[in-house]
Specification:
Layout: H1 2-17, E1 19-25, E2 41-43, E3 53-64, H2 70-83, E4 88-95, H3 99-108, E5 113-123
Parallel strand pairs: 2-4
Antiparallel strand pairs: 1-3, 3-5, 4-5
Length: 130
Amino acid sequence: MRVKISVLGLIFLFLASCVTTEAVKLGKTAQRPPVFWEDVIVYRTADQVPGKYEEIALLSSTGDADLTGEKQMWDSMRKKAGELGANAIILDSMSEPSLGAKIVSTLFLVSADRKGKAIAIYIFPPEEKK
């Protein structure tokens, strides 16, 4: 009986520590091949993007605040963007749960979620000069 409870507890902790990222595609963008997630560049603002780009999707990530960090959130967004053929993301926001949410999560053993948003983009290659 104890083994079953321990295994269930480990499964719960594993699932709670995962970051999930959802995507909502924007408009009619061209279908592009996937991009390896580590090649997806992160920009803090649209002004930092070095050239013309197309917005592909809105990204929304959620992860347990006690078990995940911002890096895991950004990496999850990069993975989802890469799956969609985006080669960069522009960060929108990252929010932490309130103190009250953290207290409730501790008392009732539920998750208090960190949330992040970004825009997946495709940066067009520079035009070749002839």
